Structures are given as C-alpha cells and as structure tokens.
Amino acid sequence: MAVAAASVFDALHLNNNNFLKPDGSGELPPIDYEDLLSLFAEGAVQFPAPSQPVSQAKRTDVKSVRDASKRVRDTTKNKTEQLKELEALAAEKGAELERLAAENANMKFKQRLLERVVQMQDHQLKLMRGTGEELPQPWCDAQARSAAATTCAADSSRCGMPYHAGGLTAAAAVRVMTPGCLLASPDVTLPPLDRERFRSLGKSKLLEGWKHFLSEVSAPLLSLETNPEDEEAAGRLRQLAAEATFMFKHASLLAPDTVMLATETNLETEELAHPDPSLWRIVVRSLELSPQQVADLRAVWGLFRGIMGGLMAERRRVNEKLAAGLHGPAADVAVAMAQLTVSPECEVLQTLQRNLRREKSAHLLLRGFLFGQTLSALQFVKMAVYSWPWFPDATALVATVAEGVDEATSA
Which residues form a coiled coil (predicted)? Predict the structure, then answer.
C-alpha cells in the first residue's frame, strides 16, 4: 500500500504543489494518502463524465446530416415547384399568344373576304342596273392585258389569280385563272351584251345553250385529263369556259328566276325534280379544291347562313300575319273594302316581296363567289360536266363543301 501511495504521490507531484499551502501560514497538516487512495478505490470520488455518450453524439451527427439533407431536398423541391409553375405560366401565356394570333389572322381573313364580297356585289348591282362596266370584272386587272404573267393581285381586294397567260402555257392558265378573269382575257372573243335578250331568257333557251356547251367541252376536258400538257385542248377548253361563263353570269344577274328554275330541272327529261345530295359530293371530290378554296367557301357559307337566318325569321313573321288575316270575319272584309284603304295583308306582301329579293341576292352572292372568284376555269368545266344531268347549283355545292369540312372536324 505504501508503494502504491508513493507512486500516486509521485505521479500527482503533490509534494511540490505550493497551492496547497495557504499564503503566509505555516505548513498544513499532513495528508493521509492512504485514505485518499481508498476513496479512489471505493469510487467515492467521481470524475466528470463526458457531456454525452459517444453513441448519442453519433446519432446527433447523423440527425444533423439528415436535417441538412432534408433542408437541401426541401429547397430543391421548392425550386422545382417554382420552375414547374413558371413553365406552366409560360405555356399558358404561349397558348394565349397563339390564340390571339389565330384570332387576329381569322379577323384579317374575314375582313379580306368581306371586301371581296362587297366588291363583287357592287359589280353585280352595277351590271344589273346597266350603270357600270360589264367587262372586265373589277377583281381582274384590265391594265395587265399586255403584261406577261401578270396577276390580279395588284391589291388585297383582287382575286389573286393570273389574269393573262403571257408567261403561262394554256394548260397552266386554265388551272389558275378564274372564269371571271377569263371574260377579260384579250385572246377570248365574246359577243356583245344584249341586256334585253338576257332579261327575257327562258328556261328552255338557257338549257339549250348549256347542253351545247357540255357537248363541246367534254372532248377537250377528256383530252386534258388524259394529257395534262395538251395545249390545244387547254386552249379550246379556255375559250368554251369563257363563253359559258359569259352566258351563265349574265343569265344569273338579269334572269335569276330562270337560273333558279334551271337548277331544279333534269337536263335529260326537262322535268322539275331535285337531285340526290350524293351527286354534289361526287362533284366536289372531282374538283380537288385547295385548302384555301375550302376555307373561302366555308367562310362565305357562314355569311350566307347568317343572312338566310334573318330572312327566314322575317318570313315566319310574315306568314303568321297572313294566317291571322285569313281568319277575319266577313264584316271586317266589307268594312275594309268600303274604306278603300291598303289592307295589312298588302303591307305584309310588300315585306314578303323584299324578303324574296334579298333571298335571291344571297343565292347570287354564293353563285358569283363560287363561279367568279373561287373555281379555276378547269374546275368550272369539271363542275359543269360532272353535274350532269343537272344544272350546277352553287348553293348545294358550297353547302356540300362546308358540310364535308364539318364532318372531318367532328371526326
């Protein structure tokens, strides 16, 4: 025990520690080192334990790392969500921009279409009244007669079709020139306009002229379909198309009732009837219309339907008033005759007459737009030939085009 005490004494250097001696005082009583060692041995004296166990420290470090990782993940997640929100916002703005651009393009398209329709109707009214130039049509540039490969597209209101075939072959010209522009072509000779002859044109005369045109144009059409580069056939087809357009245009403007009656007449039997709607689908497929032609016809069909919707609503009101007047008592009729005043029925009939004139004008709009501004000369001839045994009905043809587009869209 003494050896252990000495070793502890030496190890702790307790014999030289002056701090055990109070300042200015004598020596302290001797320390009992054996008692001190016994205290150590018995565990009475406890050394300060570490602040936390090693395992707990490791857990704390792992938790800190996890917390840091979680914060990084949360930050990344927040940034990802923000990025997704920004992408969604950008996509929404892009879609809105595309919608506005499409709407703007559609409005411009409708504006150009309305300008063409207004210009065409103005030309038709002048021709019907005999106050304007009959040839050429305003959308075919008359100053381009001597220019090669000149188009009618001098401005946005023109039809955009080549006017003169100086830079085109005859086969190419019939595929791009409208029948309306054919009337002003310098190499096409047409008879002078006899307004009274057209005004008094009967159905039989119109059908006779149309049948003659079909008999003459079938051969060059077949030759051109067999050989698309047949210049002789193309030139003959162009001449015949101009003559038929001249007849059809002025008959439509000056004798619209005759043309409407001809569209309901079978050319073989010359009896009144209605063709099967499937015929017009076959004719439309044979025309091979371009997307621009389809868009134009669909737009003008929407305009026509709007006009006809208002006319039919007015027609129903007129019919209701007429029906109410028919059921009046005999005394009212006697009083009305005694007063010698215009009866309400007469006023309604005037409204009905205006309504019918507007309906004719709406059908004339479709006819002029389809035959004068949309179809090429070759398409006009195909339409005439493939419509046999019926006279071509512009309203039915345009309706078929619009119906086909609607069916394709819904499908």
Answer: 72-103
